[in-house]
Amino acid sequence: MVILLSLGLFALVLPAQASRPEIIDPVAPHFLAVQAELSDLGFYRGDLDGTNNSALKAAVLAFHKATGAERTNVWERLDWLRADLYVQAQPSHFEDQMDIDLTNQVAYVMSAGDVQAVLGISSGNEGTYRSSSGGVARATTPRGEFTFERHIDGWRRARLGALYDPWYFKGGFAVHGSNSVPGYPASHGCVRVTTWDADWLSDVLTLGMQVSVFDGEAIVDILLSLDDSDFPARLSGATGHREIS
Question: Domains in the chain, ordered, with CATH?
Fold first, then answer.
């Protein structure tokens, strides 16, 4: 028995044992391994407790965004191989900076020349809405080079919705926590992160820190860089050393 795996331009024939396992148990060694892996790569900042918690699901979604995979919050066996192939974003020239990639819906927190964390975001959806003056406004996230100008602790109730721990970088535009951070642009123009990532950012961001907001190059699934004949062996090697008993 074989499984045909389609990867864009490629069709790979894998042995049956290479298919991803069904994940049913909400507390399992599998999730502890995923938490540890994504923590090492800078995507997961929660407890290493072996549970498929909300923070882990958000980290998986962010990882899929950063590797060009399908934007889901479910870890699959192929993701072990993506983790092996993943190359972190190059640090910016600033010592401490937040880089926000609107194309791929991820943000990178840089510290001392290294990538400290990778966060999933949701930015402006480019739709229209009614402005405070009664006109029509477009939900666009401003691009450019900015600095964080002000910060508010806790929840702020605004006309367009609730913002948790907002860090403002241009007028009313902010990076802020939200209870809804999907895999696509969905905001009125702010940059949403999860509330737990907002808590983490409050200990990392500072007023005056540089913020770069840009349209990055679309990331293609990094599995497409593999040769067809090399795929099964690489998959087996990527998963074997992460077994936790």
Answer: 2-87+220-240 (1.10.101.10), 96-214 (2.40.440.10)
